[in-house]
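re: ur question from yesterday

yeah so i grabbed the chain u mentioned. its 152 aa long if i counted rite. heres the sequnce exactly as i have it in my notes:
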Amino acid sequence: MLNPDVWFALSLRTRVLCWLLSSLCALALLWWLAISPVKETQMRLVDQRQQQNMKLRAQWQKLHALVPPSESVILPQRRAFSPLDFQSQGRQLARWQPAQGGGELVLATGWEGVVETFSLLTASGMQVPAFSLMAGEGALNFTLRVEQDNAN
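ran it thru and got these structure tokens back, copy pasting raw so excuse formatting
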């Protein structure tokens, strides 16, 4: 160990220079031990990310090639809505109250007619925001509020 008298014997300028050099060496050692490995890890992760992005882009291109062009898809023609379409076997139109963009439809039907009614409404582009079923004389009173499906 050094004698403290040697340190105090040095000029102030030399002592400050020694402190600066030792601080600089400590910072360099800290950077070499702590910051440099983190930076190398970050660079490796950036490279991995770029490689994964290239693989993902290639997979999207392969997937996009499998999808047929949109103009070749033919959508089924939608039937126009008519309350008279609900006058069929097992189903009888009791009342139709038209309103803007839809109306209220009241049918006398059985359970099978309930499912068919929803299918017919979907095929004609109508939505059913509300409905009710009540037991009636030998049939169900099926009341529906229908609206045009503006999504399609």
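noticed a couple things. The first strand starts at residue 91 and ends at 99. also The chain has two domains: 4-66, 83-148.
anyway ttyl
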